[in-house]
Amino acid sequence: MILEIADIRIAPGQQAAFEAAIAHGLKTVISQAQGFISARVQQGIESPERYLLQIEWATLEDHTVHFRGGPLFPAWRAIVGPFFAQPPQVEHFEARVALG
């Protein structure tokens, strides 16, 4: 399993609209992607315009090749992209140590 972390910054005052849009995009687009396992969105406390999107993918290629290179990516960006104050910073992680 691969964990994608997207650090998203949005324009001030757009939190409610962005949260509605990202929930819609996750439900209607991301959930349809090959290898999608789960997703979670966290909002910054000190920086309320900052969000961390966490998506679990079966493989790295499910995100980088199949999703980003396929028709779902433009649909996703059309939903959430207008809220971005800057391009999201995206990184991928693999589990190494677990507790519990």
CATH class: Alpha Beta
Q: Report the major sheet.
A: 4 strands, antiparallel
CATH fold title: Alpha-Beta Plaits
Apparent shape: globular
Counting helices, strands and paired strands, the structural category is: alpha+beta
> Per CATH, which architecture?
2-Layer Sandwich
- Supply the number of helical segments: 3
Kindly report the average pLDDT value.
97
Unreliable spans: none
How would you describe the overall organization of this protein?
There is one protein chain. The protein is an alpha+beta fold and 100 residues long. The protein has a single domain (2-94), classed as Alpha-Beta Plaits (2-Layer Sandwich), CATH 3.30.70.100. Helices cover 31% and strands 30% of the residues. Helix 1 (15-28) packs antiparallel against helix 3 (72-80). It is globular and about 35 Å long. The mean pLDDT is 97.
Could you give the topology of this structure?
Elements: E1 2-9, H1 15-28, E2 36-43, E3 50-57, H2 60-67, H3 72-80, E4 89-94
Helix pairs in contact: 1-3
What keyword list fits this structure?
Alpha-Beta Plaits; about 30% strand; alpha+beta; 4 strands; four-stranded antiparallel beta sheet; single chain; about 100 residues
